[in-house]
Write a structure and sequence with these properties.
This protein has 91 residues and is an all-alpha fold. The protein is built from two helices and no strands.
């Protein structure tokens, strides 16, 4: 199964960003059997920041900067689906 879509950039309407995350969740993640490997790759146009506060289960300690709302939303999506932000685990 393949799903290709570009995450909305900062400055785009919140409705467009919410719709993107819903499509990713409902049309892609939910359709993958739990025993299969799921990898979501790409530029999600968000900043998860360096502080893992509340998201220790989905992000490592190797990130930087300040979390923005898009990053918060992406981390919540990861929590909901038991996913990890892999590039935050390796330096």
């Amino acid at each position: 199964m393949s799903f290709q879509h570009f995450a909305p950039q900062q400055g785009r309407p919140e409705e467009e960003k919410r719709e993107f995350l819903e499509k990713l969740s409902d049309n892609v993640i939910h359709d993958i059997p739990k025993e299969d490997l799921l990898m979501v790759a790409g530029d999600m146009n968000c900043h998860i920041g360096s502080m893992s506060d509340g998201f220790e289960d989905v992000m490592g300690c190797f990130s930087f900067g300040v979390r923005n709302q898009e990053g918060e939303n992406m981390l919540r999506l990861c929590q909901e689906h038991n996913l990890r932000v892999m590039n935050s685990y390796y330096y």
